[in-house]
Amino acid sequence: MSMFRRRLALAAAGSAVVAGAVLGVYRLTDAADATSVGEAVTLYDVRDARQVAGTADDVFAGEVVNRAGQRDIAGILSDLYQVRVERSFKGGLHGTVTVSSEQGAASLSPGDSYVFATGRVPDQRTHAILLETTPASFTSLTAPIGPRATGEEAVHRTVSEYWTWAVAHERDVTSG
Fold first, then answer.
1. Which of 108, 146, 143 is nearest to 129 (CA)?
2. d(CA 53, CA 150)
């Protein structure tokens, strides 16, 4: 079973547990971006960069080149963006890639740079932003990480140092 399908199956199983137990879902987002068309169940804490990195196939910094349309991906209507990879922290992406973002999530602005945590979409050459996460915007990889990062690991770190650390200390919550 592919990693993408495994994650979808885990999400479906998790939703049944959550529905019965009425557990909360956490977000890594600004208050202004807190509304979403649909709610997703995640098995990772989206506030923990190590868990986000451990769940993602790819973690990279990139600049949005343009909006490239929309597509239904695994039943989720998504906006597509062309993103020029500036630095790969995990997965080895380079060049320009297509990134999908669930419609209703915060729009990405051409010319702006973000750190993306994505999962590969089989047979579509697309990298889907992990559900319930919002790409972290930045002005420079050498800038301080900013208020979105929490904990001692974020103190005095640049964007690049922080995500390098998160990938090096990733926690995969999808494995047994």
1. 108
2. 15
